[in-house]
Design a protein that fits this description.
Blueprint: H1 3-17, H2 27-41, H3 46-49, E1 53-60, E2 66-68, H4 69-77, E3 81-83, E4 88-95, E5 98-109, E6 117-130, E7 133-143, H5 156-160, E8 164-169, E9 174-180, E10 183-188, E11 195-201, E12 204-206, E13 213-218, E14 224-230, E15 236-241, H6 243-248
Parallel strand pairs: 1-7
Antiparallel strand pairs: 1-2, 3-5, 4-5, 5-6, 6-7, 8-9, 8-15, 9-10, 10-11, 11-12, 12-13, 13-14, 14-15
């Protein structure tokens, strides 16, 4: 892989994680949006949009694997699904003849008519300008977990048992849990914004866009003593309730 391609892949993750105020849409962005609209209209009809994909393009799939153009086209032709035409949370950057465009769209899988699967997906693409126009040279996708989850109501008295400052073990970071009405809010020590903990059950929570499951454990006296973050790989990050928090309860 060329040095230019390596640099491009390094930019992909940085662009996905850095939200910025959207500037005025340039001609380049309009042209690339138009190409992506064609693809969203007919995701499985690859003959409609594959002409704008470079022969040596690479596709980083949501499961972590990397596919060639031919591998991707074969896979897409076998799918039964539709994509929304709306592109939300868009980000665009141009470096010379290379442009990076990232957006979120909704996908519905129709593989099983009795169990439709709805996903929100972030697609980040690298386009390169050629003599005939823009060609896609790299793409990465990531499914946004719990994008449509509706939080179920929980007795505020139950939520109050989780409030306080939680300290990571062994890392020295903290998470402060507060309640705003019927919502449990979390704020990490290095963050300025709070995130809502969406309720799966009285004891299990998630954060929109994050795949971790958050649970709470009780001690022998029935008091909540640990907050656990379970990731998809099976590892667990443990947070202990701070001494100050214990004394205040």
């Amino acid at each position: 892989m060329s040095d230019q391609r390596l640099a491009v892949f390094a930019l992909l993750s940085a662009l996905c994680c850095s939200a910025q105020e959207a500037p005025k849409i340039s001609n380049a962005e309009q042209e690339i949006r138009a190409l992506e609209t064609v693809r969203l209209k007919s995701p499985t009809k690859t003959e409609v949009w594959s002409g704008n994909v470079a022969e040596d393009a690479l596709f980083h799939l949501g499961d972590g694997t990397v596919a060639s153009k031919q591998d991707l086209l074969t896979h897409m032709r076998q799918q039964v699904m539709e994509d929304s035409l709306e592109m939300s949370d868009t980000m665009f950057s141009q470096i010379g003849e290379v442009a990076i465009f990232s957006y979120v769209f909704r996908r519905t899988h129709h593989d099983n008519a009795s169990a439709l699967i709805h996903e929100h997906i972030r697609r980040t693409l690298v386009y390169q300008r050629t003599g005939s126009g823009w060609q896609m040279v790299a793409s990465a996708v990531a499914t946004i977990p719990f994008a449509d989850l509706e939080s179920r109501p929980v007795d505020p008295k139950v939520l109050d048992t989780y409030l306080g400052v939680w300290i990571a073990t062994p890392a020295p970071s903290t998470i402060t849990l507060t309640r705003e009405g019927g919502k449990l809010m979390a704020q990490e020590s290095n963050e300025t914004e709070k995130a809502e903990l969406l309720v799966l059950s009285d004891n299990t929570f998630v954060i929109r866009g994050d795949s971790d499951l958050i649970t709470f454990e009780k001690g022998p006296d029935g008091m909540i003593t640990h907050m656990l973050f379970h990731d998809v790989g099976g590892s667990v990050q443990v947070y202990d309730r701070s001494i100050t928090s214990k004394k205040s309860r």
